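Quick start: read one record
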Amino acid sequence: MRAERFCADSKTIAVEDIPVPEPGPGEVLVKVAFCGICHSDLSLINGIFPAQQPVVTQGHEASGTIAGLGAGVTGWAEGDRVIVAAGRPCMTCPNCRRGDMTNCLRVQLMAFAYDGAWAEYTVAQAVGLTRVPDNVPLEQAAILADAVSTPFGAVVRTGQVGIGESVGVWGVGGVGTHIVQLARLVGAVPVIAIDIKPAVLDRALELGADHALDAGDPGLRDKLEEITGGRMLDVAFDAVGLKSTFEQALDCITVGGRLVGVGMSAESSRRHQRTHCRLTTTQRPKRAGIEARTNPPRGQMPRG
């Protein structure tokens, strides 16, 4: 079959002929129909993200049809339309060994730790498949594996956005746009899109944002304060991943608010405990992002 291959040593890509993979126990062979291009794919090519394999097939936003079943697979048949999960549990960490694969401590990312779907065929764990209804085109279904499921996890699970909470979204590209739409769907109000590109901000307003603000505006914080009646944001989402956007979003959340880091960049996404004016800010990694939660001081400012 034909497949795109990334070589870590030379940081080059090429389309090559390689054998069709064989599905192992609990796996299926998927004939790829569509596979998206994620910014993280480009970040691997240009060296921003470190390679995990010397040679790997990229692509992790894939849809297609099942072309073969490995041993022990039930509930699926050849021809079924599916979305392939963008990662898989390691099956060896303490959480996986006790059956909590959802919270795997060493989750393996497709197209980084193992071959992805910029190819004619790819292999996937049967337990990670999602069935695609007949009325959903496969070209639209492909991005659900990451560009939609990641924002969904960020809004619903990590950020736990509630009805009537104010939400700000830094960076309204593919991921950020879905965060805006999902925040609207769960009942957040107001939903505020924040970016530096006018066309992107106009699109965010069309897709559900109540307000669209320029991240480069020196009066951004004052405008957010006015929009929220002085309370600032209950939940902020950084869909860019830069230190500047993370810090700007952190400065705009209310006491007890949450900041969820969703975007990835060359800059570190993990922040240390720090003092921020009168707030104590702590972060912990969670599925679909890094959450920062602000708490009022308890008698004195923390050390360190």
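The domain at 2-144 is CATH 3.90.180.10 (Quinone Oxidoreductase; Chain A, domain 1).
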